[in-house]
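Sample intake sheet
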Amino acid sequence: MATLHIEHPINDLKTWLTAFGNFAEARQKGGVRAYRIFQPVDDDKYIMIDLDFDTVDEAERYKRFLELNVWSSREASPGLAGMPQTRVLERVAPET
C-alpha cells in the first residue's frame, strides 16, 4: 500500500470540502482506496489529506493528475490558498 500525503493552506473549509467532493469519481478512477482528511486544531486555514492506493505507481499518477488538472486551475480548486506540498509514502512497519 502507498499513501499520497498532501497538505496546503485553504481559504475556507466548506468551499474546500465541496471542491474535494466534486472529485469523488476521479479519486475512484484514479485508484484511491481510502482517504483521511485532517485539520490542525490551531489552524482552520490549513488542511492535510492522506489518499491510499494499492501501489506507489498509482499514487504517483494521481499526484500528477492533481498537479496538471486540479491545482493548476482556480475553477477546479477554489478553496486552495497556496501550493500543496506532497509526499508519496510507503508503510514500513506492520500495524499494531
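Comment: The longest helix spans residues 56-70. The helical segments are 13-21, 24-29, 56-70.
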